[in-house]
Design goal:
mainly alpha
């Protein structure tokens, strides 16, 4: 696990936590959707960059 994949995975988890927090606070749905999409993309990129797949 290199630094970039670790950073992307932590960023994805951070954004996912923000989306969950905003959902509990009844924030606008567009903000939650944007955070969710960002979290999914970041987590996917981090997992795909892992050296396990090579």
């Amino acid at each position: 696990m290199n630094g970039v994949s670790t950073l992307l995975i932590f960023l994805g988890l951070f954004l996912l936590g923000g989306a969950i927090s905003f959902w509990k606070q009844k924030m606008p749905r567009g903000v939650i959707t944007l955070l969710g999409i960002g979290a999914a993309l970041s987590l996917t990129a981090g997992v795909l960059r892992l050296e396990v797949w090579s």
